[in-house]
Design goal:
Blueprint lengths: L4 H21 L2 H4 L1 H16 L4 E5 L5 H8 L3 E6 L2 H10 L5 E3 L14 E5 L7 H14 L5 E7 L4 E6 L5 E7 L3 H10 L2 E9 L7 E8 L1
Helix pairs in contact: 1-5
């Protein structure tokens, strides 16, 4: 039986580590040229589809949201953790950030031109991923692009210590791109491409490029 315990644990954990996590990832995009290339492709896809507001779901401290805005997109962020949203607002005061859950996404139907979820589905149990993806499909405009970044693998583990040595209680789920692609197709997405990162390390991360049909 599904309960809300994982949501409460995830929220509390990221409230605890928010400031240290922000320090860790503040320059992460600048260091990763493949990551920048993936976001540039996403921005181009949004513009090709006509432009409009873009949602960064599970935005954390807002570094991806800010990068998308620097690419010329009207991006805003949503995160489960109020602590993360406080840090995002502090670090990026000109941008819009809201507290919310991807499994109960309070955005109107067909209201966003694009959506990214970077390293945020990794904490969602298998049985709830389709609920989140269905919300992504619902809020995207027809033809709107979706980009996911996640850890690759078959195992899940309980993370009990996090950034800055703070206690956490979150499950980290590694998944195969073909499994996530199948879940996307089941809720109505067309999967266009994938990018594997860290191939010589066994493909540590994957980026999936999809689109609402």
């Amino acid at each position: 039986m599904w309960t809300d315990d994982w949501l409460a644990d995830t929220r509390a954990s990221y409230d605890t580590v928010a400031a240290d996590y922000a320090d860790l990832v503040r320059e992460a995009i600048a260091r990763e040229h493949y990551i920048r290339a993936a976001l540039a492709l996403f921005a181009e896809s949004v513009r090709d589809a006509g432009g409009g507001p873009v949602a960064d779901i599970g935005c954390g401290p807002g570094h991806v949201t800010a990068h998308l805005n620097a690419l010329g997109l009207d991006a805003f962020g949503i995160d489960l953790s109020p602590g993360m949203i406080d840090v995002a607002r502090r670090d990026h005061p000109g941008l819009r950030f809201e507290v919310g859950s991807m499994t109960d996404l309070h955005l109107p139907d067909a209201s966003v031109a694009g959506l990214v979820a970077w390293q945020s589905l990794i904490h969602v149990p298998d049985g709830e991923v389709s609920r989140a993806l269905a919300h992504f499909h619902r809020v995207l405009r027809p033809g709107g692009p979706l980009q996911l970044l996640f850890h690759v693998g078959d195992a899940s583990r309980l993370k009990t210590e996090g950034y800055g040595g703070h206690p956490m209680r979150v499950h980290v789920h590694r998944r195969r791109p073909e499994l996530v692609s199948a879940w996307l197709r089941e809720v109505g997405f067309e999967v266009e491409a994938q990018m594997l990162l860290g191939v010589d390390e066994g493909a540590s991360q994957a980026v999936l490029f999809a689109r609402r049909a």
